[in-house]
Structure to design on (149 residues):
């Protein structure tokens, strides 16, 4: 009888292992990205679509990245000097002054969303910049100087 119970227990353990391994998520080469808490966003961002919210959250947490990525929506004459400028006017001791431009500009948000996806894939900021230049230059002028090789 004990041998039968052992066989049943062994069979249950093997079946459980097969089921658990089938349900586990596969390992990927994706990297994580930082997003600022939604609680730090102004109400106009909080009520926006998810991609817009996440783009603002990404801009707050990753200025060193977005300051190196251009925008191609034509916002250069507004004083925007990078994709970061589409989200943030300034940061000082009192906090962040948000720019609401990206709330209504799909090109700004698309560039940021593409940047986030490429970072997750492990691309460098320079690689992302090259791909953004290639992909978005047909839409309008860059608000940054061209990359010099």
């Amino acid at each position: 009888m004990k041998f039968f119970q052992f066989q049943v227990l062994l069979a249950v353990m093997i079946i459980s292992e097969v089921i658990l391994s089938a349900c586990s998520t596969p390992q990927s080469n994706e990297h994580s990205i930082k997003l600022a808490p939604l609680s730090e966003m102004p109400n106009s961002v909080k009520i926006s679509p998810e991609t817009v919210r996440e783009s603002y959250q990404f801009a707050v947490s990753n200025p060193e990245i977005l300051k190196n990525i251009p925008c191609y929506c034509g916002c250069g004459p507004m004083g925007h000097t990078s994709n970061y400028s589409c989200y943030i006017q300034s940061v000082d001791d009192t906090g962040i002054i948000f720019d609401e431009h990206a709330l209504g500009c799909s090109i700004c948000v698309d560039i940021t969303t593409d940047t986030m996806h490429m970072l997750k894939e492990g691309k460098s900021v320079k690689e992302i910049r090259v791909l953004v230049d290639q992909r978005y230059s047909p839409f309008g002028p860059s608000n940054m100087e061209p990359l010099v090789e």
User: Anything to note?
Assistant: Residues 2-23 form the longest helix (22 residues). Residues 8-16, 18-27 have pLDDT under 50 and may be disordered. The longest strand covers residues 88-92. The radius of gyration is 23 Å.
